[in-house]
# Entry
Amino acid sequence: MTTIARRARRGRPLSPGWIGLGFVLPCFLLFLMFRFGPAIAGVLLSFANYTVGGNLEWKGLLNYQRLVADPGFLNALRVTLVYTLISVPLTIVAATGLALLTRRAFRGARLYRSIFFLPVVTSLILAGVVFTWIFSSGGPWSTVLSAFGFPVTDWLESGTFALPAVALVGVWTRFGYGVLIILARLQEVPRELEEAAVVDGAGPWRRFRHVVLPQLRPAVFFLVIIETTFSFQAFDTIYVMTSGGPVDATYSLVFDLYQESFVNFDFGYAGAIGVVLFVLTLVIALIQRATVGRES
Amino acid sequence: MSVVDTINGLTRPSAGRRTTATRDPFAPRGVAKVLTHLIAAVCALVTMFPLYAMVILSLRRPGAVEFPASLVPWDLSVESFGLIFATPEVWRWMANTLVYALVSVVLILLISAMAGYAFAKRRFRGREVMFWSLVSMLMVPYQVTLIPLFILVARSGGVDTYWGLILPGLANVQAVFLMRQFIMGIPDDLIEAARIDGCGDWRIFARIVLPLCRPILATLGIFVFLWHWNDFLWPLLVGQDPAMRTLTTGIASLQAEQIPLSQVFAGSVVAFVPIFLAYLVGQRYITDNAVAVGIKG
# Structure
């Protein structure tokens, strides 16, 4: 920066390249320091052991060998997958349904859409606090369930139901975003296409099945990727609602990473969990690329 | 088609307004209309229920949230709010959250607008490599970088400091990407004309590009504010001293301390009101652009 200033003062025209670089520099330095650097360090760390005192010791693949034999980690992997398998399909089905419902310009459509989006801007911590109360025994959830003849239990204290409960909270916090994505895509469906289908004698169902639905594909694919990535990172709600319990029933991958690093201070081992998370995300993205790429 | 292309494909300008502007021949009528309203209204009520419960329970007398707690809006009291606001720490959490969110907004907007200008309108060596390596960071989950980031900040004495809280979050990929996309749409002629008139790059940036960027700056500003206001994990790690908590980590600590639920809910309402107001005021901004800004809540 000082050389640029000096050259400018001397009045010699700066080479345009330097100016561009100058504008990018603050941003790029921040990225080097707080993104690229830590990302590389994160991968390297997974092959080492790091103590709070600052000692680094190479471990090779030892952390990974420990991972595959660690029932805690395997459980976290399973919890994360089950969480994803519950929340992603439900989120997408709810989003698609509500987008189709409020797609048409009728009075109030906008209001409904804004209400559906409200949970997306609500903090996950607040959602966690409220849903802890909703799911507790005697709370609204068990009241509704008992009205249908199901036994009254505190879902968050049940080994079977705690995970579906936090996954449902995940759906509540995310479906509004899906509504928006599907709606944006629906606006792109040319009205002429539907009008032509009407002329050809297609009823509402066939119009939906053969004209609208095929057009939704890219948006749904996009949502699957985004929501899966999101589900892999489930943490905030789990932290306030169950702390991974009861008996590790909601102990997700990121919760595992948090515990191993910032509670047990086993940084290298936690780094390996982070790398697994990275690989999972990458695989999902590659699958999306392959499938969508083949279609177009 | 990459995720980035998909985002682009989904965000043609004003895509959200077309059907409402012109008459829709397929708009529901008669029974279909009543049914649509009915289903949508039920879904909206279910969606709102947790937020309604939060507000009503915060207005119960402390210790009166035992089950079955009444959710009917009478016999309300602001006692729990009185107790929450009587806690000096809560004021500190609010101040921390405001500092965290507002300083981040200002700095992220400035830094990413500068970078966006250079990436969109200047040629320099390594431009493409730099830009796409930034965007590639979208693929790396935050949690991979989290541990080294924390070690870095902790070892440089950043725990329980504002810079430790704010600085790492300034490297924001989405912000740079959006700024570049927007500035690419500004005509080159405008910039060339200014240059011929003798404007330097900084003046072109500050006097021409930045004012034209007002819509995207407002949008991005709202989103950055929301992200930081709601952020949890990083403030949890950096704010170890109770005085350095933000509202989210503070409320999580209240919840863990077993204080009366009505107070926890009062604190939640305090944290939620600014978000709700921002959403009411900037609703169209937020929903029309959430598609482009994408993830993170």
